């Protein structure tokens, strides 16, 4: 069931991780899924734990368009209240659970590394001029989207994503 | 004791909210404070609940300098691990506790309103030119600082604060 949940997660995103869909994908009864994960949060948490999330993976030119698409997808996912709840649960659990803390640190590092690969390629092709470090770029792009969806509990307009992209350097066509 | 904790919080910030300081301020023994709040998180949470936090209050010109100071102070507070933990606990508790959710929504709204007052005054004086809404400005300024201190678990350089301020419009001297 866990493998099925991860496949669903990579294919369709966190919104697809329900007991029903996971049971269906794994070819077992729904009751079996409920028995393994009595709390809905835990199912998604376990699924995300070992999954290689597709976010910010494999950049393609033009990088600005690609980054916009990645941030749009992240925002769409976090706008689903269950996903925002899961992100908060994960961050909160990391305070006292070393395994979750390790997993979260790894995922934060992965985002920074992928953003580094993407911005480097944009700088190399002349599409982007920037002196901002990848860790700052990650905070400037991802931070406002996480804050909007979890703390302000609102949606992310494409307009805001454009402003975030504007803020990380000078883009050329 | 709660009143003492809130006075401390407003005067010295969340870092000052320890059992010892609160007991001292209230003129009671430390054991009494521990008896009321067996969990350290809860003491800070209660103290923050009713406090009128000074952050982003009473803007003064030049607004950019003032905003930088406010964001620096917010970052300094969140860099204290207990404060970041409290912020995450508060956000997580809001998922299932309507009273905390209400309190948190109010504090998010207060920040937006205060940022609106500050940016309006900067626009009126000709210091700032911007078309970005206050709710987006709040997400672009506060989001990266919260993300850096809670998720990336790093510190906020003044340099990053300057980049965030650059991102919300065009500043003039």
Can you tell me about this structure?
- Chains A, B: InterPro entries: Homeodomain-like_sf, HTH-type_TetR-like_transc_reg, HTH_TetR, Tet_transcr_reg_TetR-rel_C_sf, TetR_C.
- Chains A, B: It comes from Nocardia macrotermitis.
- Chains A, B: Residues 1-55 form the HTH tetR-type domain.
- Two copies of one chain form a homodimer.
- Chain A contains nine helices and two strands.
- With 173 residues, chain A is an all-alpha fold.
- Chain A binds chain B through residues 85, 88-89, 91-92, 95, 104-105, 108, 112, 132, 135-136, 138-140, 142-148, 150-154, 160, 163-164, 166-167, and chain B through 85, 88-89, 91-92, 95, 104-105, 108, 112, 132, 135-136, 138-140, 142-148, 150-154, 160, 163-164, 166-167.
| Overall morphology of chain A | elongated
Strand order of the largest sheet of chain A: 1-2
Figure out the total of helices of chain A. Answer: 9
Measure the end-to-end span of chain A: 46 Å
DNA-binding region (chains A, B): 18-37
Domain HTH tetR-type (chains A, B): 1-55
Protein name (chains A, B): HTH tetR-type domain-containing protein
InterPro entries (chains A, B): Homeodomain-like_sf, HTH-type_TetR-like_transc_reg, HTH_TetR, Tet_transcr_reg_TetR-rel_C_sf, TetR_C
